[in-house]
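Hi again,

Forgot to attach this to my earlier email, sorry! This is the prediction with pyridoxine-5'-phosphate bound. I've pasted everything inline since the attachment limit keeps bouncing my files.
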Amino acid sequence: MALLGVNIDLVATVRQARATDEPDPVWAAAEAELGGADGITFHLREDRRHVNDRDARLLRQTVGVKLNMEMSIAPEIVGIACELTPTQATLVPERREELTTEGGLDVREHRERITEVIARLHDVGVIVSAFIEPVPDQIEASAAAGFDAVELWTGGYAHAKSAAEVESALSTLSRAVETGTRAGLEVHGGHGLTYRNVAQVAAVPGFIEFNIGHSIVSRAMFVGIREAVRSMKQLLERHAPSEMSV
Ligand code: PXP
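Structure tokens for the complex follow:
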């Protein structure tokens, strides 16, 4: 069964809506851990629109499970990550005008800078993952650049409208997992996964980890974070591929 990383950015977004000190994403992380999260994911954006430096520092001090920092390759953020030393850094593209991270990193285009960032993070013992689209070109470029893992953008599946589009997106993901695994990468998935759509992706053999944020935090408004995380874990477990198919 794949591990569940809970993205707590949205909790900080609610706090920032009033520029106050609640709800605290650090509390959310502790609650997620109590609900069975295998990891906590946060994105320290250059514009600090949700998670800020104080949150990042406290998360590093308090999170007892895997801590995954989503980050751009901007020099300031790379410097912070090297000091913070989360368990894992997931390199993502970042645009000011987007609502959330849209699409994947172009590993080939930014190869030189990315290779440098991977080396710096490896030097301080951080596992490095690339958030990419599930296409062979980017997977191969990620392996060649020295990434340990890739997180495949599952938005193509999540946004699919018809049954045919869903099928096609699932087979794209499935082939991408195979390609990544064969290239020696640990394969993760994330973006747009919800209680309604996670089952079919959870059933794809080979995924090691899913990072899920918006849907879990949304449900948490009604049932609390612990229960919301517990329910998502149950879905991942119920729909996990059998050992034989992995
Ligand atoms: N993975 C990455 C790399 C992301 O940028 C995000 C969104 O912040 C997620 C996973 C979680 O996506 P969602 O909030 O749609 O579950």
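The chain has a mean pLDDT of 96. The pocket of pyridoxine-5'-phosphate is lined by residues 7, 9, 43, 70, 90, 92, 100-101, 131, 151, 190-193, 211-215 (CB under 6 Å).

That should be everything now.

G.
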